[in-house]
Amino acid sequence: MEKHDIYSEEFLININFQIQHKECILLKKMRILYSIYHTGLLLGEAQLLAKLGHEVFVAASCDDVTNFISLPDYKSSYFSSRKTLIDIHNKSISKKPELYNRANEYNIDMIIVSLDYYTNIQNFENSFTGVVMVRFFGREQPYNYDFMYPSLNMAKNKYIIACAYNEVIEHEHVQNRSKLKLLSLPLKFSISSDTWIGRNGPEEKIMFVCSDIKNPYYWNIYCSFIKNFGDLPYSIFGQQYANIENIPNLVSNLTEDEYYGEMVKYKVMFYHSTEPRHLHFHPIEAIKIGMPVIYMKNSLLGKYAPENVSACLTVEEAKEKVKRVLNNDYELIDNIISQNKRILEYFSEEQYARQFSLIEEGLKS
To answer: With 0-12 CB in 10 A as exposed, 13-18 as middle and 19+ as buried, what is 254?
Structure first.
């Protein structure tokens, strides 16, 4: 079958993001098919790979996975709304074998994907000649990715398991541990630093993010928050994937601009998680915009900054600090904001670029 020119106007628009990275020498400009349809990752990791000089592509649509479009154009094209991204993710586009057959025709060097219970990495081996990077983001306690081990252990072609955190690497037990690499998660480019305006209003409330409340896991999180913080002023944010009723103070299904427009107004964010190997984007995003974030010490976020005044051993301690922020304890507010900024180092572009360059070096050997 005839190879298609990667620069052909018939299929895509070329990307020409070229930057000089102080601490990262780009070893090879790769053609990457990014097959994780998650808003934060498309606007963070995928955008950064393009910025680092790689050519990054996504499937043109969930119905036609044989054509690719270049990443900078997806936002003004098919992937223009959060709803579209949810729809395409739910249709499991990454499981369609024709996507990977077509990748060979486009001379794709690497496919980045997040696998699940229904995907066998051997399917890639039968149809794709490049490298598959499997992203592990960490599962809820006590689980790991053992459901994928048989497929990964039998795979023969080149693949990499890129884990977002060291704690994930430590908890996984694949036979070939040399496949496990550390690759952090950069934040969205669209989030501006220090834009928080909630110090003196206009929303003197807690911002609590809880998506998919009908899911039993998140329902328990929601109920725990209401039990412990329901007597304080709050709003519940988060994408809801099903019709939901009788949830007071729910602010849901916003556009990206609307969501961050609201975030900067709120007084404080409480981050509930005590998971040791998984971390949501929203507390890190809130820290970047300069918002006070109070979290649990016995969590992955707590491992990065256990000594911060915002790290709490108990829910009671967390509630007491949330109350102090709501009551304008400016000394506490300023300490929380300044100390939490250190956490952002792990999610920096420089950190990701260094780690990705190490993976590139390994591919050459």
So the answer is: middle
Q: How far apart are CA 277 and CA 172, in angstroms?
A: 11
Exposure pattern of 112-144 as b/e (b: 16+ CB <10 Å)? bbbbeeebbbeebbeebebbbbbbbbbbeeeeb
The pTM (predicted TM-score) of the whole model is 0.83
Q: How many CA atoms lie within 13 A of 227 on its CB side?
A: 9
Using alpha carbons, select from 327, 317, 319 the residue that is nearest to residue 230.
Answer: 319
How far does Cα 127 stand from its chain's mean position?
27
| Better-scored residue on pLDDT, 126 or 67 | 126
- Going by C-alpha positions, the residue among 314, 280, 317, 319 that lies closest to residue 300 is 280
- Which DSSP symbol is given to 18? -
**Helix 256-263 vs helix 281-289: crossing angle, to nearest 10:** 60
Q: What is the pLDDT of residue 298?
A: 96
Angle at alpha carbon of residue 347, lines to 346 and 353, rounded to 5°: 95
Least confident stretch, 4-13, 81-90, 97-106? 4-13
Tokens of 57: 């592509």
Q: For the segment 306-315, what is each residue's pLDDT rounded down to a tens digit?
A: 999 999 999 9
Cα 28 to Cα 8, 35, 53, 361, 363: the distances in Å are 21, 20, 9, 10, 10
Q: Are 363 and 59 in contact (CB under 8 A)?
A: no
Structure tokens at 108: 């794709």
**Residue of 65, 127, 129 lying closest to 92 (CA atoms):** 65
Contacts with 68 (C-beta within 8 Å, 6 or more apart), sequence order: 11, 12, 33, 57, 58, 59, 60, 102, 106
Q: What angle do CA 26, 68, 57 make, to 5 degrees?
A: 25
Listed in sequence order, the residues at least 6 apart from 172 whose beta carbon sits closer than 8 Å to its beta carbon are 136, 144, 145, 161, 163, 180
d(CA 71, CA 358): 23
Type of residue found at 22: K
Paired tokens of 191 = 């989030």
Beta bridge partners of 192: none
CB 304 within 8 A of CB 346: yes
The answer to whether residue 295 scores a pLDDT higher than 90 is yes
Identity of the residue numbered 188: K
